[in-house]
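I have been asked to look over a protein record a colleague put together. Alongside the sequence sits a line of tokens, each denoting a local backbone shape. Please read both lines and tell me whether the tokens look consistent with the sequence. Take the sequence as given and treat only the tokens as open to question. I have pasted the whole thing underneath without changing anything:
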Amino acid sequence: MEEENRIPMDRSGNQAEDRKKSYKSGFDTDESRRRQLNAIVIRENMRNDDLSNMPVELDLISQLDKQNDQEIEQNRKLLEGLPSMVDGVRSGDVNAQLHATCQLGKLLGTGPCPPIDEVVNAGILDTLVRFLGKDEFQQLQDEAAWVLTNIVLKGTSEQRGSVISNNAIPMFVRLLGSASTAPGRDKGVLWALGKIAADAQRYRDLVLDHGALPPLLSLLNENTEISVLRAATWTLCFFCRPLSDAQFAQVKAALPLIQPLLYLDDERVLRYACRALYYLYARPGYEGQTITEGVCQRIIVLLSHSSLAVSAPAVMTAEYILSGSYMQTQFFINSGVLDGLDYVLNSNHESLIKVAACRAISSITAWNMSTIQVFYLENFEMMGRSYQE
């Protein structure tokens, strides 16, 4: 934020610093803060795990509704043809390769339990990955991307590992944002990269090391199609999960693009943008020096969002912003954060989220005695009820 938007340290600043040090030493060390925040994140992630780890546009991949008898019989016949599909993929005839890859896409793209193991064990993943590099045969390239995306999204962690071990990550990154006649390919590749990144930190680091972030940010910056923005924000959220210093140096480039996402009127985009912002700020030693007025004001608004999936990471982000510098905390106060936290404490949210709001308030009161007096006079009874919950 600009220096003129901040309130300078007054003559009581040294006293405030002493109070803050004394306060924290007796009540809230960095380690206890991290433990408490982790408890909230774990609780929230357990509740939302199935949703946050799956794509938001399942209809693009397949309809997972109940199959009728005709569809079951059709899938059985397709599976019987798997050996000929394998032969076609391995042939040197591009037309036979295309036909076989299309059939594999149909095989994996129908039904809630596609035969992924059979396809993985057929030993053709390396060939399918090579097809991703066939720019001169774009239809084959697109169909191969479809097959591999289905394996990544519908498969187990072990099955995704088989795709990764065949060098799929750099090929997916290469496709991201490249020209394609296939509608939805960018979304499919985004989901695949996000799902891989969500599997394990080492996979997330591989995705980032292969340069997935710049084309993702380009899609966020240039695209107005809401389904692409949902997929890109969902993937960005997993890119931002606990980062090493080196990885953070790359991913912090996303901060300027997260702000406009926070202003979109779409719950899914807001959910993942808030999570991404929280992951970026929830770093020991990071004082949020790039926080802008727009981010502060929007986070305050989102504290009262009707969806807990949006308001919960907004609360936790607010807590981290308020644990930063004096000027940063004062600016957040001037922007009206106490009103937003007041809403959270009086809401029907679960007690863990209210406790996070109370810790955010404690960071405010650690700085400024006048703030303590005003806040306790207006909210002491409310805080007591929240802690008792």
Q: What stands out?
A: Residues 1-13, 19-28, 46-53, 55-67 have pLDDT under 50 and may be disordered. The radius of gyration is 25 Å.
